[in-house]
Amino acid sequence: MKIKQLSIFLENKEGRLWNALDILANDNINIRALSLADTSEFGILRIIVQDPEKAKKVLEDNDFIVKIKNVIGVELSDTPGGLAKVLKLLNENKINLEYLYAFTHEKSEKAILLLQANDLDSLIGVLEKNNIKVVPSKEVYNL
Q: What are residue 114's DSSP bridge partners?
């Protein structure tokens, strides 16, 4: 159920994001989901790829700092209020998220929400108890 996400630390300088993505492309590593957060000095690129271990090695071999962290994928309705419904449930159950990002895919009217929290097992329990579909990692890797 847990999805391995790569967090890549990028210096906030021209070409650094392109360089990381070009390295992955040259190794035939396809990105399934991506989020980028930045400050004035550095950025954190979070990505989901089919083979996280291979991607980590390739990037580290090219002097990038990379960490793997587990996240949860949730399938939700790609309609107004779909995200709010999930967030309300988490709020009611005192689940505090560190961050989230979402993407759509070929399933019509569905999106996948990627969630990170301090206690992923509690997060999974709340989601499953409330019939929110937790997406298996293989399904996300192979989209």
A: 73, 101
pLDDT single digits (tens) 65-105: 999 999 999 988 878 888 899 999 999 999 999 999 988 77
Reported as a single tens digit per residue, the pLDDT across 14-23 is: 899 999 999 9
- Strand-pair category, 65-77 with 2-11: antiparallel
Query: Among 53, 65, 63, which residue's Cα sits nearest to residue 8?
Result: 65
CB atoms within 10 A of CB 4: 18
Fold of 71-141: Alpha-Beta Plaits (3.30.70)
CA 128/CA 80 separation, integer angstroms: 22
- Domain 2-67 in CATH 3.40.47.40? The answer is no
- Helices within 10-74 (DSSP H only): 16-26, 52-61
Name the strand (E) or helix (H) holding 81: none
- Asked if residues 45 and 24 have their Cβ atoms less than 8 Å apart, the reply is no
| Cβ atoms 68, 6 nearer than 8 A | yes
- In this prediction the pTM is 0.87
